[in-house]
């Protein structure tokens, strides 16, 4: 299931804006289809233009997402639960449902397959992509209202970076889950979730124009390297 609402604010029409020669959502659809993991690849959207683009690239759009699930505050879990319940109501009861973000051009068929394997072998509710922070979060600083800096954890000022515990964050690419977990709105970040660790060069949030530019540079560099090997 690929969520793709039409009301993106910071980057207008982000889900179908051209990214390295294709509408952004096309990269996610292509990876999902190529993985061979799914009976159906569904795009959940409230936008007719996004629906048209999604269908043109091989996804199905069997319903339009209701307005109450298409605002700026609705999270991922309710949207996936809605799509899952729609399938159940239509007589198709999935065992697993994977949410692939529409703005994840670095997602690959291989990592989607790996996520399914982790979900099955670990016996957890969810398995999703994560990556490590490039800098120790224990040495992070904040900017004060007075234009000064202060540490979040000043007790680690003299701690060597290599002595600090490595931290990870959600890579924002895909979330495999048991259908029952989605429908129950089970917590995504918790003891019943397993990580699928990705290298940092395959992860880039795309929330601003600067993010978009950086992602295109990374994407082109990665594919140039692959083509020359």
UniProtKB/TrEMBL annotation:
Keywords: Nucleotidyltransferase, Transferase. GO terms for molecular function: N-acylneuraminate cytidylyltransferase activity. CDD domains: CMP-NeuAc_Synthase. It comes from the Bacteria. This is Pseudaminic acid cytidylyltransferase. InterPro entries: CMP-NeuNAc_synthase (IPR050793), Cytidylyl_trans (IPR003329), Nucleotide-diphossugar_trans (IPR029044), PseF (IPR020039). Coiled coil: none annotated.
């Amino acid at each position: 299931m690929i969520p793709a609402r039409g009301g993106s604010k910071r980057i207008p029409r982000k889900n179908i804006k051209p990214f390295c020669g294709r509408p952004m959502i096309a990269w996610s659809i292509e990876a999902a289809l190529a993985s061979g993991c799914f009976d159906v690849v569904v795009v959940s959207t409230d936008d007719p233009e996004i629906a048209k683009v999604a269908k043109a690239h091989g996804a199905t759009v069997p319903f339009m997402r209701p307005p109450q699930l298409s605002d700026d505050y609705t999270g991922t879990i309710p949207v996936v639960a809605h799509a899952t319940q729609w399938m159940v109501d239509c007589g198709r009861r999935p065992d697993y449902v994977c949410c692939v973000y529409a703005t994840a051009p670095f997602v690959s068929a291989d990592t989607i397959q790996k996520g399914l394997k982790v979900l099955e072998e670990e016996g957890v509710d969810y398995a999703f992509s994560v990556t490590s922070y490039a800098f120790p979060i224990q040495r992070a600083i904040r900017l004060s209202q007075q234009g000064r800096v202060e540490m979040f954890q000043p007790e680690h000022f003299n701690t060597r970076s290599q002595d600090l515990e490595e931290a990870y964050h959600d890579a924002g690419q895909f979330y495999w889950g048991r259908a029952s977990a989605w429908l129950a709105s089970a917590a995504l970040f918790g003891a019943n979730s397993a990580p699928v660790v990705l290298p940092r060069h395959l992860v880039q949030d795309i929330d601003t124009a600067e993010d978009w530019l950086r992602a295109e540079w990374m994407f082109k560099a990665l594919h140039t390297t692959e083509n020359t090997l």
